[in-house]
Amino acid sequence: MTDLESGRSASTSPCQEAQEWVEDAAQASGFVFLTGAAGLGKTHLLRSLDSRSDEMLLVDAAGLSAEQVFLEIVELLDVPHDLHERNPVQYANELRRAGIRQVVAVSNVHLAGTVRTSSEPGRVMRSVVWSLGAGAARTGVRLIAEVDSAVTPVPKNAPAISLDGAGASKEENPPLPDPETVEGAALRTLAQAELRTLRLEEWCALGEIIGVHLSVEQVRGIAAELGSLSLDGDTARFLHEGYAHRIRRAMADEGRELNDRIVAALHQLPPGPLATYAERTLPAHSARAGNFEQVIADPRVLAACDRTALLEPLPLAFPDGIPAGSLAADIHYLDKLGVAPDSHEEWIAFLHRNAMCRNDLEAAEALDRAVDLPWRTEWAHWRRGGQFTLSPDHVGEVECLAVAPGAVLVESTGSTGTRRLWNALTGAPADSPGVSQAVTPAPAPVWEADIGWNKVDLRSSRASATDERRLTLRIPGVNAAAAVRDVVVLGGTQGIYAVTVPESGARTAPSPAAAFALPMLAPHGCIATRPYREDDCRPTHERLCAVFGADRTHRLTGSRIPDGLTHQPSRDFLQEVGFPEIEFFFGLNTLPLSATGLREVDWEQPQGAELPGGAGPFYLLGEWIEGVLCLDGASGMVRRAPKATALDAGAGTETLVSTSLAQFTAMVSLHWQRMVVYDQSGNLDSEELLAELADWLKGIDPAAGKTELWQHVLDPDNFDTL
Known about the structure:
Layout: E1 2-3, H1 14-23, E2 31-36, H2 42-52, E3 56-60, H3 66-77, H4 88-98, E4 102-107, H5 120-133, H6 136-139, E5 141-148, E6 159-162, H7 182-192, E7 197-199, H8 200-209, H9 216-225, E8 229-232, E9 235-238, H10 241-266, H11 275-289, H12 292-296, H13 299-304, H14 307-311, H15 314-317, E10 322-323, H16 327-336, H17 344-357, H18 361-370, E11 376-382, E12 398-403, E13 409-414, E14 419-423, E15 447-452, E16 455-460, E17 469-473, E18 478-484, E19 487-492, E20 495-500, E21 507-508, E22 527-528, H19 541-548, E23 553-554, H20 568-576, E24 579-580, E25 588-590, H21 593-596, E26 600-601, E27 618-624, E28 627-632, E29 638-642, E30 656-658, H22 661-678, H23 686-700, H24 702-705, H25 708-713
Parallel strand pairs: 1-6, 2-5, 2-6, 3-4, 4-5, 10-22
Antiparallel strand pairs: 7-9, 8-9, 11-20, 12-13, 13-14, 15-16, 16-17, 17-21, 18-19, 19-20, 23-24, 25-27, 26-27, 27-28, 28-29, 29-30
Helix pairs in contact: 3-5, 7-10, 10-11, 17-18, 22-23
């Protein structure tokens, strides 16, 4: 945090400094945080500044998500923009064109979100205040945000105006509670809660879990008597949230043990006073306990907890990144897609689909039983976000679907032109050997389907001109739809799946419903790179055949391997595993060695590229990035001699491609498999894929994986030229 007070004269107060910042549009920073402990008048100061300035707007972040804060700012600024481009970067372009001058004050940033263990305060600071304010010189919009730094730390190196604690009263900075008194035990219980405002009966029920026995009348009296609490009807809260956090920090290990007991009790989804509390806070409590993934693995919990409750604690649950392939990762990627349903049932429909994609039928059935799904996934060949290892029969992106006349078969056409037949009712590939392709008569479909942007509009085939029954499936990433009987088959960026939709959900509507908007802000949390797994990358003949095809995997007999190749592991590899024939893959072309054999070549030395000492003879494997790809017969290393036209030709050029032929083949095989997924990622998980690929290439060959050659082919900026 950068304290702006360092440039303040001794007579300038923080309040004056804040006022000067608001009034002076030439301030170096387009945003500033107003920090300090509770009770120092930060919120009052913002409201006072707002009342005195015609160019200041005020947004209260308390209880809001970062997206809601951003939307409130957008609505107050009232600058026309494309609704599908509501994000700070693109909205900043509209602000620049509008030419406005405005200061936006955001109060109670530390109270953003619905639970104490929420990532929303941090998201408001980084994704809204910092992101919008950083472009103030172009947009004319500056932001000042109030944060209780005792609750939520301000981002490092952020500009700040700090109010000192000299003015805080005893009520605003009370002593820590004595656990031996009834009042102290009650305060400690209230601090352990995740909701900032509790119903009195919830307060008592939480106390029972941790061994504090309280009656509603007792806690009502305590809340009315203590100046540190606020009583409003049948609810109570801390007057200043910083006090709750101070109590939590003081309880330390004891607090963690009490929280574990709360998690165990709430995991049972108890009826009674804590039923709603559990649905809203169990994920946050489990994030504090360090068992978030284990708790949400219970389908009952997943079905009971709402979307917000699952999203807000993700960064705390996984401070080092969300494990790829986990349930938490599924939730993260739905957030990244902008899936923000109006109903809990619609949210569960997406979780049910993902369970079907994982082939977790038990979880899918439990989710199906828990709620009335607006649409139900019947079968799925759909790649989930973060799933980078594909089965041999993976579908790939589907661009078109067509129904076989009078049958239950659907034909999909992929982005590469590949066509496949599917049984629309079961999802079985109808073009596989041994699968009957008999045409089965099918009645007229229940639905007529039209594809829109990020949605599928369904119209009941039984509708009349005066009673048009409609339903919209708001599903991102769908390119095509086809209806067979009561099934709607969907194809898109990540494969194909089928859903059934109850007609009871259709309604008479003048026009189809709107799709989900594009995500406004960065998603909750980030995905951790999977640890390198050698077994997943070790090249075998069978694995190469599965990746490149048997006709493009070439093994050599001993008689066809030249005597100059003295490196025995390379000789064994060529005989037992083979080498792939590749064309036009990120600058790589390799020879069909079973046809060409290993041909000895001279090492080329354009513009001073040096021959490695003691190396050679060299055998031609192909070309890569305007260079000759060679196998060193003595060491088994794979090297690249850049051609004279190569951008990196010259003295000191890095020639190492891989430490051995086996490692090079493993690297190329992994690169090939991951880039097949990358081409179909739709930017959903492309960054994570490339990060994992770079990590795993270094795992296969630490020396070669970090060279500029491999970094070059992994840089998206170079993809169009490779």
